[in-house]
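Need a sequence for this fold. Nothing fancy.
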């Protein structure tokens, strides 16, 4: 990995480099995505089946698009029982964490006859997109489904592309069943996003679409926003390790590579106050890359978006981390909890050398669907909040309104909205 001194120029160049990975930078695909979405809007199932045949090679129709209980039972027979046990353990942790996020309606009444409040309502139906083929991640099924389940969503449906044989990856089916998905449809790509957003003869329209996918899926979600809600426009994975001279260079290198192996656009960054550590981590990265199964992908990721930045002090290092606003941030310092208090922008923060990033991906409980491409400056991880909506409650008695009606009328008239003022005035004009 390249080692550079941290300064304004290197930080600016790095931030510009990372922004190139955003789905917003891939406008050349938008026309193709728009064409697919328009076709699904106009021809519904017919277009959905045509694109499934073209892109996935599967003969899907109205009679076999819905995964059957028999197919799910078959999947259970092929999934390793030890893995099934791990999935169930992880589910307990994920459910327990998200249960602590629950919000409830509240009402505040006063003796003068006013009542204000907030009514919390769960979304009725949501759609979860799950990648298929080699990119099958049962952990993502758990993370996208469980907060919706905890929130109390009435119907959770899942779409995932089938193989050429018309079947869905067994681990995906098992994870979906364990998490409580109600229906699973064999559809992927932009066409599946369109089906969820608009509804077809086979797939019902949802209120919100969540879940990761390729550039076509990301751009399709962006395009249908407004017809439905979405979680976010997810970019490639990223990790930033913030370390001082006390950090274990072997651990830091291993953790950087845990994200670099995702794809060639993944980003792995070390920000440290120690040049010696920087050199040691670079050496360990080289050793590990030669040994790991996805070494070619890792190397391309590191060549394009791998950085080691050496800061003069921890304050500068923390400032850089806040500017980068990484999806995953690991803190490996002598006093990591003190450093954590100074972090403003990060999707998930991992504290201490035994809190490696994969712990969050699979098992600890917090959601691994996180803001990317610097959006941690204003976005949060997927949570129960993403599956509820809130309505304001206002109730005034005549007595309560009478005390303040002239104030409201004056405010409305100051904005030249006389009908607003009249709406209040008619209640007290004696007519």
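Here you go.
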């Amino acid at each position: 990995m390249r080692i550079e001194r941290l300064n304004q120029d290197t930080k600016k160049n790095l931030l510009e480099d990372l922004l190139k990975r955003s789905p917003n930078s891939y406008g050349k695909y938008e026309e193709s995505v728009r064409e697919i979405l328009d076709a699904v809007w106009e021809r519904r199932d017919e277009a959905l089946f045509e694109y499934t045949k073209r892109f996935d090679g599967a003969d899907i129709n109205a009679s076999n698009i819905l995964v059957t209980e028999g197919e799910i039972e078959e999947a259970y027979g092929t999934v390793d029982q030890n893995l099934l046990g791990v999935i169930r353990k992880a589910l307990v942790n994920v459910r327990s964490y998200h249960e602590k996020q629950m919000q409830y309606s509240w009402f505040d009444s006063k003796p003068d006859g006013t009542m204000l409040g907030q009514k919390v309502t769960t979304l009725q139906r949501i759609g979860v997109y799950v990648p298929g083929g080699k990119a099958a991640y049962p952990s993502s099924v758990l993370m996208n489904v469980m907060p919706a389940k905890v929130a109390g969503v009435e119907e959770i449906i899942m779409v995932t592309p089938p193989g050429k044989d018309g079947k869905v990856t067994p681990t995906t089916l098992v994870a979906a069943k364990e998490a409580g998905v109600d229906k699973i449809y064999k559809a992927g790509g932009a066409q599946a996003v369109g089906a969820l957003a608009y509804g077809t003869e086979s797939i019902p329209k949802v209120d919100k679409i969540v879940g990761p996918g390729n550039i076509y899926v990301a751009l399709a979600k962006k395009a249908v926003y407004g017809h439905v809600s979405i979680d976010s426009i997810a970019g490639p994975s990223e990790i930033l390790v913030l370390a001082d001279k006390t950090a274990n260079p072997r651990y830091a290198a291993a953790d950087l590579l845990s994200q670099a192996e995702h794809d060639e656009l993944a980003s792995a960054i070390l920000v440290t106050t120690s040049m010696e550590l920087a050199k040691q981590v670079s050496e360990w990265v080289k050793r590990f890359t030669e040994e790991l199964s996805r070494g070619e992908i890792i190397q391309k990721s590191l060549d394009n978006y791998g950085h080691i930045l050496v800061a003069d002090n921890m304050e500068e290092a923390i400032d850089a981390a806040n500017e980068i606003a990484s999806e995953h941030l690991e803190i490996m310092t002598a006093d990591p909890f003190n450093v954590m208090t100074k972090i403003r922008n990060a999707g998930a923060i991992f504290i201490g050398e035994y809190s490696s990033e994969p712990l969050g991906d699979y098992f600890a409980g917090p959601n691994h669907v996180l803001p990317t491409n610097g959006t941690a400056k204003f976005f949060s991880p997927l949570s129960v909040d993403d599956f509820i909506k809130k309505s304001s409650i206002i109730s005034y008695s005549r007595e309560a309104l009478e005390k303040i009606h002239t104030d409201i009328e004056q405010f409305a008239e100051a904005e030249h909205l006389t009908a607003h003022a009249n709406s209040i005035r008619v209640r007290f004009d004696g007519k």
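For context: The two ends are 81 Å apart (CA to CA).
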